[in-house]
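W.,

You were right to be curious about this one. When I first looked at the sequence I had no strong expectations either way, so I just let the prediction run and decided to look at it fresh. Below is the sequence, 546 residues in total, followed by the output.
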Amino acid sequence: MKKAICGVLLAVLSGCALSEDPALLARVGEVEITASMLQVFEAKLPAGKGAVDHRANLNTLVDRELLLQEARSRGLDQDSQVLKYLEQREVKELANQMMRRQVLDRVSVSEEQLQRAYAQEGWNRQVVTQEIFVPDETRAHQVAALLRAGKKFAEVAAEYAVDRVFKLPAKAAQQFIYSPQDAPRAIVEAVNSLPVGGVTQPIFVRDGYVIARVEEHRPVALEAVRDKIHKALQRLQKNEIKDAYLLHLNQEFNIQEQAQGMDLVMGILTGKVKELSAEQRQLPVYTYGDRQVSVEEVLEVALPARDEWPAVTKQQLVGELTSTLFPRTVMAQDARRKGLDQQQGFRQWRQREQEDLMIAKLRSQVVEQIEVSQSDLDAYYQAHKQTYRSSAVAQVQDVLLEDPDQARALAEQVGRGADLAALAKGKSLRQHTQDGVLVVYGVQGPIYGEEWVKAVMKVPLGEVQGPLKCKGGYSVFKVLDRQPESYFGLEEQVVLKSVKREVTEEKERRAFNDFVEALRRQQADKVRIFEDHLKLLAPAKEAIGV
């Protein structure tokens, strides 16, 4: 697409003979916007179809320049927050460049290594689990106690399982399939050590605890996991090369811990220290070369991560810093030592980043007075209520058979008193169920078959039904329990937060768009569009479909 746009623009413009430079498309104050600048901007846009809208894209560049001039007039190019974020982005970009040069470019996985890993490192099998997630330790121990007492896993899941994302009742366990090197490591290691039917103790994960039941140890062909093995070996090589590189840098820069700064950080993390002065926040926790890592920098990394730690200890803190902050800082320092920050490409990148941050800060100033009322929340919730719908859900026991005559015969057996659960164990095509019991949601028609799901959601409880055709064959079933469709209201904190976020973002968009419109009117005398030059660009089209 870049070459297509560039070629047409240059070919058209080179044949012009206009009073101004034909490559000049607009002037905003003293700043000129040229065809090459428009080319660069359009080349970064998502691919689409049809003609490129040069006029709209040029207006975007003009608006950007107006916003930058407004931001500079407010002193945002020297704003402390802007400069702080710019430094953080610079460190990250320099570290990324060194990671590519010193680590990623050296990673190479051979076919021999891949096949050896498959044969020797357990990649020829996977573990299928059912998992109950609960958000706190108390409920995790309650779940474990019920399972030890002999209560069925599906029944406990129906009562206690919580959705990992929304933290709302899930009413069922979730299925996962793990290869040996998958994450979370604590779960993978635990289930790999258990036989089929084995249940783990509560395992701490992010935001809560998991209790997993092993459903199956299944063999898996090499081709099914080739990509996963390749990525795992790449990751292993990358970590080995990275560790060696970082060890070299750590020794060369001689990183030293500073006791006073470390004590302040641990005081904040453990709650023993409530507030820090501006001077304390700038004290060093580590020094390396001619640079330092301040209390403030360490806390910016440690505070968000603290909730995921099993305990707040210095060892946990150092481990977090070793995996996140230290690699970035020392690799960025190595990049500066090698002069990467002085190269033209990097300086251009830095200027663009600073401009983006200035506009973001300007936007935050424009929208900082936005308020959201209860009526705003109520109106949005009513207009988008379907978003917060909880599907009807049923607990179903069934036997799935491929042949309809066999299914009819089985239904007759059940009618004469045969146990459906016992028949499910020996005859059903359904996999990964206990006693033929599965949890079915009202939206799962595409998975099980629309007519079957509709029947599940309306037949009387406890009565044997079928055989009824569904996906995969013919089902003889009965519904053990069913919960109707419902809606999560604004009294649920997760729903309230979601609605408030959506309303706030929409109000902010409108306020900022109004600000840009007003800025255009106020600065209209500073803006000149060279319409004749712009018209020459109209024939250009995207490369896609041309």
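Here's what jumped out at me. The two ends are 10 Å apart (CA to CA). And, maybe more interesting for your project: Residues 251 and 516 are 52 Å apart (CA to CA).

Coffee later to discuss?

I.
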